[in-house]
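#dry-run=false #mode=assembly
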Amino acid sequence: MSFDVNQIVSYREMCNEEEQEQLQRGMNFELRQGYSVVLMSVKTNAPYVDRISDDGLTIYYEGHDVPGDRLKEYDQPAANPSGTLTQNGMYCHAIDRAKKSGDYPLVKVYEKLQMGIWTYRGLFEMRDYSFIQRGRRKVFEYVFTVTEQKLEEAEKHHARKVIDLEQTRQIPGKVKLAVFKRDKGVCTQCGAKDNLHFDHILPYSKGGTSLKEENIQLLCARHNLQKSDRLNS
Ligand SMILES: [Zn+2]
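#status=ok
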């Protein structure tokens, strides 16, 4: 089984889901058969600039620096000194290939809220990239769009799951962090601490926004499900 979009998971649950002892790198090209994994962070001192489109369906994910380039002086590299591709280069290469075949590679996105606490942002297609000026140097910026492909096409043993565009509207990390703190990490209905999700109080389709913490709340899986049943009936 796979996580729901906007589900809150522990670091260990995330590693178990991806069958890894640890996940330390931000970019993990083809971590598993059929998809890559990227990690984001919402910390104010996060090392990379990640953005979300206004309609909440696209993530702009910054590539990674030369190891140790804390002052951000050097252009982000597509290749290592030895000539092999960096993670940046592997993603670019895969996207270049996909533009010809039309078969866009899949990437799962996780975001760190705080120590040991992560949210699953969903499954995306890697659609494009650019190499842009940022500060004194140039960086890669990857374009990931919400995919309607079903995960089991990528990985057979995963449960069939239709991606619900409503649920996949992206909530900015800073909003998530503020909501998590405000709701004290528990379901606003019952106080449960497990299986939490970020929920749009007024759905996007009814004019609700993802951009304001006033419209987002924490719900446990049970209350999240109850609410979506009510909305869909
Ligand atoms: Zn609850």
